[in-house]
Amino acid sequence: MKENFEDMIIEPPEEIVKRAHVKDWEKEIEKGKDIEEYWKKKAKDFKWFKKWDMVLDDSNKPFYKWFVNGKTNITYNAVDRWIKTGKRNKVAIIYTSEKEKERKLTYYELYTEVNKMANALKRLGVKKGDVVCLYLPMCPELVISMLACAKIGAIHTVVFSGLSVGALEERIRETNAKVVITADATFRRGRIIKLKDNVDEAVAKCPSVETIVVVNHANVPVKISELTGREFFYDKLIEGEDSECPPEKMDAEDPLFILYTSGSTGKPKGVLHTVGGYMVGVSSTLKMVFDIHDDDLYFCTADIGWITGHSYIVYGPLLLGTTTIIYEGAPDYPDPAIWWRIIEKYGVTKFYTAPTALRHLRRFGDRHPKKYNLSTLKILGTVGEPIDPETWLWYYKVIGNERCPIMDTWWQTETGMHMISPLPTAPLKPGSVTKPLPGIDADIVNKNGDPVKPGEKGYVVIKKPWPAMMRTIYKDEKRYREYWETIPGYYLATDVGKKDKDSYFWILGRSDDVINISGHRIGTAEVESALISHPDVAEAAVIGKPDPIKGNVIKAFLVLKNGKKLDVNLMEKIKEHVKHEIGPIAVIGEMEQVDKLPKTRSGKVMRRILRAKELGEELGDTSTLED
Ligand code: 6R9
User: Fold this and answer.
1) What domain range is 557 assigned to?
2) What is the ipTM of this complex?
């Protein structure tokens, strides 16, 4: 944290304040102190088939329940209810891509598409509580499939299309998914990435899968064995289905989706979210933070395969009746102006992206954004990792022309919704996430749970439950409890942060063994187990190494088998292997062969030592080191 940025205050533009839903930021935070009252009011914006009996049930901590006994349906609220209003013919989704192809769906069209798919899923035998795995590129069918699942009460688990066979298989197997919906292929930087082939390979070892549905998305020929009655093309499947489908009356606490994310140890965790609280939390934070109005054109560049896409490309915007853009492709292809061109073309008003993309695009110079009319922009957002003040200021000046407040939103897959973030009417400091949102009680504490002094580093905790919080880790209650029991009573986010003299929060990074690469979470354990599954690798330890664009890359320390030497050839093979097991996001920047790894007496690899040595830092406490 640099002193000068702590003292730099950027006041909100008058125009923004005039229009804002929340005029007085501090007052709203005050109002949010009574969390039950605050979230109860927000819940009134939705259709409930039956009203809840109780806002928050905290009788069985940390298994909190929200809107107890309330009955609703998130798809009904995101789609159905708009077709009886003036939004009926409003564009709900604009799909565009690096090929600059376009497809638009109005709320009414989305309604009929979702209903057809929901009926098709029912016909395939999918019932309330069954899991459907979605392994799809950024395309309208992904949104339609998610909403169709939610409409009939099936639980969706979206697997990011950049993940590969190993990761896909693990997720299908753990969730016992009955149906997998995929596409022939996706494209990135002009390259075709075949998805159906990955599904074939993964599903071969997954007996739970009864049906595979394939979207013909990229016009790539695929093998499909229609004769077995097990594989269908998406278009054929929904052909002739009824375009009406009544919404399943879901309990507020019924599961909505499982989304896997990396943790510090072991396998990725299946974060489970439920219907009612998620709906309320996600849409009301989006409305506050991006100040959503009916005339907005909203563009979030995340992938729907991650939580940002779930909450703030699909559910949040549709629950507010907004037009949301889904973009398929890279930020710099066919040229580094593609996003700026999209902003100009559609007149985007709210733009939400990640620091890694901004750092990358900034490198190409100001001439790309300067070529396009970005004057429709009103509010900008960032998420995924800490944003350095220099990149923040570039975003503010060059993209926002010093007119658009930047919402630096801190949150996690587990939190489901924004947690620490300014509102558009807040005075900003470049690089700070400002303060916990109204209705959120967050703090920076030491390991005993006591607040630290201003300027001191500590752990980010949430002291009270919030509606969109995860309800458990799928099939692993113990790991869920760890979040709330490491510092008893508080939710431990495993991030390190500080508060400054004005009580503004600054997030510094993870406190666990999770590496943040271009805003993607990768667990050291996942990468290590992928490395060890290579036949020539005996032992492996990985650390995150700072990288100016990606935030971090992986450095792997390897002990090899039978006197093997780590030459260029073997390095390539190992990299390919990790790519196959996890996916191209697990970028291995460097590899080093070592004779042995530093370990504790109990045999745990001390990554801290490796990291300190690598980065030329103090080794710290080495008393537990075995050798
Ligand atoms: C939404 C999302 C969560 C981790 C989180 C933290 C980092 C996210 C941030 C941020 C600093 C921000 N993170 N937003 N760090 N400032 N505005 O990214 O979810 O993929 O689960 O990652 O990302 O370290 O713990 P997820």
Assistant:
1) 518-615
2) 1.00
